[in-house]
């Protein structure tokens, strides 16, 4: 039953009940009819007023309900828009995951993906002259990257083509037998790849006594340490270290600090040489100033000797001017 019917029915029922009471006890004659008519008019007016008030309240309630409904519809539309955007993002992410799965599933694409990731990290963390890409060693073997560290430890080669087929088979194994087979295959792949890197990329006198294998997945790095920790330690004893993007980031930070320290030591040595040269030039300047002072003192002495000689010459000239070269006259002789 609608909510607005009950408030309307109550006054109507009350009016009908009053009418029945009046009719039951109405007096006989015209006065009773007139009185009943007056009461019916009054009751009708009150009923009209109650109905009008109820209609007004009903209209106001309907208007408020319409406003609330519009507001709810607006919020629903907003949430639907957010849901549509989230759905589009999820679909795009699904496409990207599918693409990434295809990249990791293909050996050549996976190698290219690892190389791009490795190259971006090297370019971001190391100076341009601190590393080389696709560097060819003296043996003719080309490594994916070479980090130019000074001896010791020396340049470090990096490989980024770790086989992932056995690891993917291990993660997708449906039962224990398939899992055990995938683990044995993964152990064989690890030993073979570590042996290749240790043989090709560790060259005494040319590179450091170690090399790095870059794993483009943190999950693969964690699984290898958890499932094949003994093989990881065996590789480390041979000088081959498995690094993930996170660990390589830290390793490159340490290498950059080492390169900066080497550069600072070289600059300090250069500065020390320049200071030594400056001290030598300062000593040479002191000697030349001392010679100049000596020459200046000798020059002053020579000037003094020249002044003395000039004074003597002047005095001699004065004496010469005072000498009477002509013979004395007779008058001067008589006077004498």
Topology:
Blueprint: H1 5-24, H2 30-105, H3 107-125, E1 131-136, E2 142-147, E3 156-159, H4 165-171, H5 176-201, E4 211-214, H6 218-227, H7 229-237, E5 240-243, H8 245-322, H9 330-335
Parallel strand pairs: 3-4, 4-5
Antiparallel strand pairs: 1-2, 2-3
Helix pairs in contact: 1-2, 2-3, 3-8, 4-5, 6-7
Keywords: Coiled coil, DNA recombination, Membrane, Transmembrane, Transmembrane helix
Transmembrane segments: 6-25
Protein name: DNA recombination protein RmuC homolog
What is the mean predicted local confidence, pLDDT? 77
What is the terminal separation in angstroms?
179 Å
CATH C-level class of the domain at 101-246 is Alpha Beta
Largest sheet: 5 strands, mixed
CATH topology of the domain at 101-246: Trna Endonuclease, Chain: A, domain 1
N-to-C SSE string, H for helix and E for strand:
HHHEEEHHEHHEHH
**Fraction of residues in H or I helices:** over 70%
* Alpha-carbon Rg, integer: 57 Å
What is the molecular shape?
flat
Structural class: alpha/beta
So, CATH architecture of the domain at 101-246? 3-Layer(aba) Sandwich
Number of strands: 5
Main sheet strand line-up: 1-2-3-4-5
InterPro entries: DNA_recombination_RmuC
Keywords: Coiled coil, DNA recombination, Membrane, Transmembrane, Transmembrane helix
Protein name: DNA recombination protein RmuC homolog
Family: Belongs to the RmuC family.
Quick tags:
single chain, alpha/beta, Trna Endonuclease, Chain: A, domain 1, 5-stranded mixed beta sheet, 7% strand, flat, coiled coil, DNA recombination protein RmuC homolog, transmembrane helix, membrane
């Amino acid at each position: 039953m609608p909510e607005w019917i009950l408030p309307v029915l109550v006054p109507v029922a009350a009016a009908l009940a009053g009418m029945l009471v009046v009719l039951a006890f109405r007096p006989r004659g015209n006065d009773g009819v007139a009185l009943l008519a007056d009461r019916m008019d009054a009751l009708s007016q009150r009923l009209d007023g109650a109905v009008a008030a109820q209609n007004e309240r009903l209209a106001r309630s309907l208007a408020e309900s319409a406003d609330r409904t519009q507001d709810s519809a607006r919020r629903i539309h907003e949430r639907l828009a957010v849901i549509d955007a989230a759905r589009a993002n999820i679909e795009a992410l699904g496409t990207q995951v599918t693409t990434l799965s295809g990249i990791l599933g293909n050996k050549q694409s996976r190698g290219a993906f690892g190389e791009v990731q490795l190259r971006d990290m090297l370019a971001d963390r190391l100076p341009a002259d601190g590393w080389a890409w696709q560097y060819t060693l003296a043996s003719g073997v080309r490594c994916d990257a070479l980090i130019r560290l000074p001896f010791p430890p020396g340049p470090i080669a990096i490989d980024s083509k770790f086989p992932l087929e056995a690891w993917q088979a291990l993660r997708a194994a449906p039962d224990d037998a398939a899992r055990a087979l995938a683990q044995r295959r993964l152990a064989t792949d690890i030993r073979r790849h570590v042996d290749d890197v240790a043989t090709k990329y560790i060259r005494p006198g040319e590179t450091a006594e170690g090399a790095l294998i870059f794993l483009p997945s943190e999950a693969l790095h964690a699984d290898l340490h958890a499932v094949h920790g003994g093989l990881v330690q065996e590789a480390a004893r041979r000088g081959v270290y498995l690094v993930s993007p996170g660990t390589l980031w830290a390793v490159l930070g340490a290498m950059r600090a080492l390169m900066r320290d080497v550069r600072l030591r070289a600059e300090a040595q250069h500065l020390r040489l320049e200071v030594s040269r400056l001290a030598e030039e300062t000593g040479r300047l002191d000697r030349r100033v001392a010679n100049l002072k000596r020459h200046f003192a000798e020059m002053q002495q020579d000037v003094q000797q020249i002044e003395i000689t000039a004074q003597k010459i002047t005095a001699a000239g004065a004496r010469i001017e005072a000498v009477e070269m002509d013979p004395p006259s007779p008058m001067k002789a008589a006077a004498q």
